[in-house]
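new request in #modeling-help
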Amino acid sequence: MPQTDLMAHPDPVTEPRREPASDTVARFDHARLGFGSRVLWDDLTLRISRGEFIAVLGPNGSGKTSFLRCLLGQYALDAGALSVTDAIGYIPQQHADDSDPMAMRGRDLVGFGVDGGRWGVGLRGRARRRRLVDAALAEVGATAYAEAPMGLLSGGEQQRLRVAQALTGDPTLLLCDEPLSSLDPSNQQLVVELIDERRRNAETAVVFVTHEINPILPYVDRVLYLVGGRFRIGTPDEVMTTETLSNLYGSDVEVLRVHGRLLVIGGEDAHHCDHRPEPPTVPGHDGERAAQQ
Ligand SMILES: Nc1ncnc2c1ncn2[C@@H]1O[C@H](COP(=O)(O)OP(=O)(O)OP(=O)(O)O)[C@@H](O)[C@H]1O
């Protein structure tokens, strides 16, 4: 869903407070979120600064997308506070939709980032839309295939356009929900470099949900690792260790570094580059945490 839509229909209950202009683009204070008796995280305190690259990791169902939804104002915290900039760009999880991929051109998709696909924006609105779309297309190097139907573009080209869509609002915070899934390694690399370029050029903070840390490892400042109601926050060197992950999962997890890549053996599912087939039991939540900031 385009970011403009999310902001245009705020739920008065769930809308987070807006962060005043500063180096901080989002701040969670002693935050808790859960559904029914299930706690996704509790007592989460985290400040996200401009230009920071934060990876959100964890097994299926641990709350990664819910974390983004809180930042988008779609989910209200159960306790604690959240303040966040209103200049948010959002690359949603890729899934099939009802639109005809041969009828929608690349520039149409990017344009949804500007106006959510509203009709009747008027001549001046159309000129502004075209300007913003052209700038976003140029920023991601997608101008050459902007007129082509989405259905004729490769996965990497389509993902480039989704990044462009998220950039049309000139965000200070870019939320990415598994933008590398279904891309081959070279296209993964291209998309990550694109996002990192935006971060360096505009100091846009990046919150990047992923099952696979290796493609983004060189860029990540901090990791938020969610497991079964517990979490760790810290640099990759602090969080991605045998000791920390074993502690977090409550079972044996081994982290190896092989040629600059992380190999995680154990853990609940394959959210890294490799794992052993038999998953250990994930304990219930107990609010344990460390290296909080
Ligand atoms: N609106 C909701 N109402 C009830 N339960 C919800 C809601 N949103 C999420 N959940 C539950 O919260 C848990 C976390 O979901 P979430 O989608 O955030 O996990 P995730 O880590 O992103 O998972 P995945 O890796 O599979 O995408 C899941 O068990 C999910 O069913």
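bot summary: Residues 11 and 74 are 7 Å apart (CA to CA).
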